[in-house]
Amino acid sequence: MTNSYTEARAQAVPEGGGWSIFIPGLPLAADGRTFDEAVTEMVGALREYAEDWQDHLLDAPNHRDNWGLVQMTSLCDDDQLREWLVGNAR
User: Fold this and answer.
1) Domains of the chain, with CATH numbers?
2) What would the pLDDT profile of 41-59 be if each residue is shown by its tens digit?
């Protein structure tokens, strides 16, 4: 399966007085007291996933196809990742 990362497809849901963000099909989720805090946490989760992928997940069958996400994460700064996550919703 080849993934296209032109759209994040991130979903944000209010939960327990805060926000949770996840990207369907990816092993990533983040929580925050505010929407902006949750987005910041998700940017951190993307960075951590990219590091883990390059370190040891790249050969795992359930992570192998996420190389595009890892490359994009590596090439973008935090503001670009935030924009990718929220799109025009803000």
Assistant:
1) 11-85 (3.30.160.620)
2) 999 999 999 999 999 999 9
